[in-house]
Amino acid sequence: QVQLVQSGSELKKPGASVKVSCKASGYTFTGYTMYWVRQAPGQGLECMGWINTNTGNPTYAQDFTGRFVFSLDTSVNTAYLQISSLKAEDTAVYYCARRRGTTKTEAYSDYWGQGTLVTVSS
Amino acid sequence: QSVLTQPPSVSGAPGQRVTISCTGSSSNIGAGYDVHWYQQLPGTAPQLLICRNNNRPSGVPDRFSGSKSGTSASLAITGLQAEDEADYYCQSYDSSLSGSVFGGGTKLTVL
Questions:
Q1: Which of A2, B66, B86, B89 has the least CB density, counted as fewest CB within 10 Å?
Q2: CB crowding B3-30: b at 16 or more within 10 Å, else e
Q3: What is the mean pLDDT of residues B37-64?
């Protein structure tokens, strides 16, 4: 069965970096684009962007350029989200989610990771 | 401020029918892009509830249905059950932002 298993919670100081992993199993990893979604405490879902797992090409939403990097290691079926120069407002749960749909305009997420809580505090 | 507008909360008694609206604009729902719905139970990851406007993935009860008209979409839940108490999010594509967008979410309370 399809599973997306994310790395555990992180506590970081402002200015540090964090790398969240998302290990996929139960399907052909390079056959589906991977979304990243952020959920701040008590808030809604925000689409951060996605990475084409076949080409490695990332696409970032407008609010997630500069400090956010999506990457892959296809040898271990894993997607990564790295955030640098962390700020208190980056405190959130970060989800990876498998993208379905032929094109980006009809895309949705059929499987989600369990989420990774990143806390930024001095 | 979300591009897609949902009511912050709705409520209903067990057995009743509730609807959750998702209002967009000409750059997203009104442009004909599909609307998808997710359910997020407390403390868990979102789960796909409705895809492509009105399609239920395998395992989703037929008490849940979706519709779309003009610049809006709706999620209907009939025969409300206590286990339906959750946050619900709509999602679509926005051509102005060139990306996927979510509604602000609606908290469903079963009275």
A1: A2
A2: bbebeeebebeeeeebebbbbbeebbbe
A3: 96
